[in-house]
Design brief:
The protein is an alpha+beta fold. The protein is built from 43 helices and 11 strands. The N terminus is likely disordered.
Length: about 775
């Protein structure tokens, strides 16, 4: 099978044996995925998978672990890891991401002709933002063809081969676990041993006779064996290696031409120049003069080489010796920066921080500032991190801003994944002050605002994301403002807004070509039988509303979530246990929540935290109903308080937040309940269609029935008001008024709204009726 082979090595001849890497790329494929592609993309592949989000954030489920993918960062996964990718939308009913796209590259490579590349990496990995920018440029170059790129293949040009090689090198540099000797192959491979022998002896011009002796052959036998394998005589092959080494040293170091000649085994500068001109059609002097100025600091380059080998003490000694001499300011700053890296790697953190803080201005001041910022973020010293970041951004050039924005996005993503909300407001404020118009950072900003319960802020801070703006404003109950983005979501989005707003008659006028939406509106208007007559093929919701479960199962044997809901409501766990395994992690977790809820509770939130916290809430109430108060309390302790720094709105449904809050109050934790209700009132007005905010204000005695009804979301409003009033009476010890309301809630004919079987809400009502008996 054809492969793309890459050979690269350290500039220093004395460390070639440790630094040489042979890379054989055996597979390279590029894909530009659309929203539709994501729905059907395969879950596993060969080698590595490199992901680059293009215009929004994505949820990655990798081996049951959640990861948030952000535009501008590059993610490296093992191809063998089972993964699913979906746009990071948190509204199950909507799909506002018609313009989603994701660049994905599959790549397989062998290192030193035997070690799979992925075995040298710690995966999944997020590439450091500076490296990530370079990878992004490579992938964007690859994506210019907008068609699948595959290697091997005769139609792929040299540019793509080169880009693939650079991609591997960058990945290894950014994410490799550089264990000593991890890239070496067996010593029985004589050809590899020969090449390594040559590379180690470039400075002495190893004679052919010594090569043969080292491999245990006679000179004649060695020559006959080596020439066809090398494609040239051993002497010519080694001469070309030495000349290539000359070229690298001239381009990357400040060594003189005479010094380069000595290091590469030529008898004189003159001899080297003659051979060099034959090989490269130019002179050593011309190559040396064309080298970038910042590559001519030989001492700094040597320090970098020692750092790359993790020889930190040696690198530190070189820095300190160099700083004692008379070196230019630019070189001194670079050595100071490297000195800080050495100290940090050796665990002398305070000294490293002092060194980095002493650097101001210029490229090394910028790099030192980034190191400081990363250090403070790792230490969770967010006050210092944001201060350093702000000063660094204000002093940075426009070309440096991109890397800093990527660093900011990476940190916000980590905080979101950890559900650490306390530092997020300050970081979001940084963005508003420093780079408010950056579109890529708007995606993670919208995610953070939603999780913090500040949906109303999305339109102000992310105006160039109209889909996000519409759905965030709708969730906030700001329906009129949401309608300003109507053209970006289409008719379907508007109809769903009408449904939330209780504008059912408007739906009947506008959705004649949308039978499912017509059925929903008729059911909400109490006209389920009419829905069945008019739309017999789309009336699942009508059958569910009428509790005609057996007929539902007969007509629609396997619509995923609804089918499982019916089985759950019927208590037919035997059927649910035999339900086909789903590749959709949400459906799979929902199925497990029905058939084996204890395993979900034991394993933690998983891909859909709402299911986990819903089960915890339900279990806590069921335990209370059974009189097992201590066990119920242990369940409640796993459910974050609203005012805790780890509370995340998209992990919880409004009903679970409300019920767990009042349950704490009903079992005697009145102070905790009141503090959570006040937090909802003070900080979370625009969350969950304002339902929960009105709940909190009603139970705090700040609004009455009529004011409660003024909230914009009308769907199921009267039924919910009845529940809130019953709880209010219950908390006040007014059993005579609380009990009839609870009983009425169990009768769908009285409330106009059904309480689902086996739901936390029904468990709660049954518990309260038993407690008030």
């Amino acid at each position: 099978m054809p492969t793309l082979k890459i050979h690269f090595t350290s500039p220093d001849a004395g460390t070639v044996s440790d630094a040489v890497q042979n890379i054989d790329i055996t597979h390279l494929a590029f894909f530009h995925l659309s929203a539709q592609d994501l729905k059907s993309s395969k879950t596993t592949g060969p080698g590595l998978r490199i992901l680059l989000p293009q215009n929004q954030s994505y949820n990655l489920n990798c081996e049951s672990q959640q990861m948030l993918l952000l535009p501008g960062l590059v993610y490296v996964l093992s191809g063998s890891m089972e993964t699913t990718i979906a746009p990071a939308t948190h509204d199950e009913a909507d799909d506002p991401h018609e313009d989603v796209s994701l660049i994905m590259v599959e790549i397989s490579a062998l290192i030193s002709q035997g070690i799979p590349l992925q075995e040298l990496l710690e995966l999944p990995a997020v590439l450091e933002s500076g490296i990530g920018e370079q990878v992004e440029q490579i992938l964007q170059r690859l994506s210019s063809h907008r068609a699948s790129l595959r290697l091997p293949g005769n139609d792929v040009d040299v540019l793509h081969h080169t880009l693939g090689a650079l991609l591997v090198v960058l990945i290894m540099e950014a994410a490799a676990d550089r264990r000593p000797g991890s890239g070496r192959t067996s010593g029985d491979d004589k050809l590899l041993r020969l090449k390594q022998l040559m590379a180690r002896n470039l400075a002495v011009n190893l004679p052919t006779s010594e090569m043969a002796l080292a491999l245990g052959m006679s000179r004649a036998t060695f020559y006959r064996w080596a020439k066809p394998l090398l494609g040239d005589s051993p002497a010519n092959y080694m001469r070309n290696l030495r000349l290539q080494k000359c070229y690298d040293l001239l381009r990357s170091t400040a060594l003189s031409i005479d010094q380069v000649a000595v290091r590469t085994g030529f008898s004189s500068r003159f001899h080297m120049t003659l051979e060099f001109k034959k090989r490269f059609k130019t002179t050593p002097g011309e190559v040396h003069r064309a080298a970038p100025q910042n590559a001519k600091d030989d001492l700094a380059a040597e320090v970098d080489a020692r750092l790359g080998e993790h020889r930190f003490r040696k690198a530190l000694s070189l820095c300190e010796n160099g700083l004692q001499g008379d070196v230019p300011a630019e070189s001194r700053d670079r050595l100071r920066f490297q000195q800080g890296r050495c100290l940090y790697a050796l665990g002398r953190i305070d000294e490293a921080v002092t060194v980095w803080r002493s650097l101001h201005g210029g490229i090394w001041g910028y790099d030192a500032g980034r190191q400081l910022c990363s250090h403070y973020l790792r230490m969770e010293d967010y006050a210092q991190a944001t201060l350093v970041f702000e000063n660094l951004f204000n002093a940075a050039s426009p070309s440096q801003h991109r890397g800093l924005i990527a660093l900011w996005m990476h940190q916000v993503a980590q905080l979101i994944n950890k559900r650490n909300t306390r530092p997020l407001p300050r970081l979001l404020e940084l963005r508003s002050n420093l780079f408010p118009s950056d579109v890529k950072s708007m995606h993670i900003t919208a995610d953070a605002l939603g999780g913090l319960g500040q949906e109303n802020e999305v339109a102000e801070q992310c105006p160039q994301l109209p889909n996000y703006c519409f759905h965030s404003l709708r969730r906030a109950g700001l329906f009129d403002r949401a309608m300003a983005f109507e053209k970006h979501v289409g008719k379907a989005g508007v109809l769903k807004l009408f449904l939330r707003a209780g504008r059912y008659e408007d739906i009947l006028k506008s959705a004649v070509d949308d039978p499912e939406m017509m059925v929903d509106a008729l059911v909400k208007l109490g006209r389920a039988e009419e829905a069945i007559r008019r739309y017999p093929d789309h009336c699942q919701e009508a059958y569910l509303a009428l509790r005609r479960y057996d007929e539902f199962l007969e007509r629609w044997p396997r619509p995923p979530i609804r089918h499982l809901t019916v089985l759950k409501n019927l208590g037919r766990m035997d059927v649910a246990r035999n339900y086909p395994e789903s590749k959709d992690p949400t459906v799979a977790q929902y199925l497990t929540s029905i058939t084996a809820p204890e395993s979900i509770i034991a394993s933690g939130p998983g891909p859909e935290p709402k299911i986990y916290y819903g089960l915890l809430s339900q279990r806590a109430v069921r335990l209370l109903n059974a009189g097992e108060t201590d066990e119920a309390q242990s369940c409640l302790e796993k459910i974050h308080l609203v005012r805790s720094s780890t509370f995340w709105w998209w992990d919880r449904g409004a009903s679970e937040v409300f019920l767990t809050t009042v349950v704490r109050g009903l079992i005697g934790q009145r102070d905790s309940m009141r503090a959570d209700l006040e937090a909802i009132r003070d900080y979370h007005q625009y969350t969950d269609y304002q339902i929960l905010w009105h709940d909190a204000r009603f139970l705090l005695g700040e609004i009455d029935d009529d004011q409660f009804r003024e909230q914009p979301a009308k769907d199921g409003l009267e039924s919910h008001l009845a529940l809130v009033k019953a709880i209010d009476f219950d908390l006040k010890g007014n059993t005579r008024q609380a009990r009839p309301l609870y009983e009425k809630l169990l009768d769908p004919e009285s409330t106009g709204s059904d309480v689902p079987e086996n739901s936390a809400r029904k468990e709660f009502i049954l518990w309260r009726l038993k407690s008030l008996a």
